[in-house]
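Fig. S4 source data, part A: sequence.
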Amino acid sequence: MTSFVQHLLASIGTSNGKKNKAGHEAGVIDMVDTFSRFLNQSIYWADFSRSKFLYISSHPLFLAGHSPEEVQKMGFSYYEKIIEPNDMKTIMVSNEIGFRFFNTQIPLDWRKNCYLAVDFRILQEDGSYIMVTQTMVPFLLSSDNKLISTLCFVSPSLSPHAGNAVIQNLSEPLQYRFNPETRRFYLRYQDELTPREKEILLRSGQGEPNSTIGDELNISVSTVKQHKRNIFRKLDVTNISEAIYYARYNRLI
């Protein structure tokens, strides 16, 4: 079986792009390191042209008890050490198809506003696994449209299962959701929620119970519950916590 690392690099494709100058890389690393201090996320910079991590933040979520220097020394083989084995195939397939999107002739101005996100479980220092969302943002592309490097953000996920791969466009209400059965990303417009549903979701995110939401909107509690069921169906989630997480993550509220 092809290893995750081999599959990852094969999915990205090779590039003959020029290497970054050391001074430029140092400047970017300083910037990202400063940025990482303000987020409750692990951040790393992956260079696919050289199969190495250029930067890994000290946030513990992605480190599994290792230091950033130890992870950098292990290189991309580190993925195979921390990703839950049963999630590996899901990640390999969604990455492969997702990278094809970024390695196409789609206009760069449109592509640079997109990111690839996927949920999977990773190992923690105590030997347990935690579900995370990894968001991969294209950073450098070569002249032949291959990904050279990406910034990756790893944060805790409320998803009950691995997968849920999406390609999100930040400049338009567009999202491509991955279907593992057909191995394709399908376009989905994100303005499916009505103004009333968005308001209920926003109030729920502020901790308001159904009775308070009903009183303030002059509707019955049963109507509030029906709106929430419609929200769950549209967002393909099972509870209000998942709906709030999804809506905030995808800038619906």
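Fig. S4 source data, part B ends here. The chain is about 40% helix and 25% strand.
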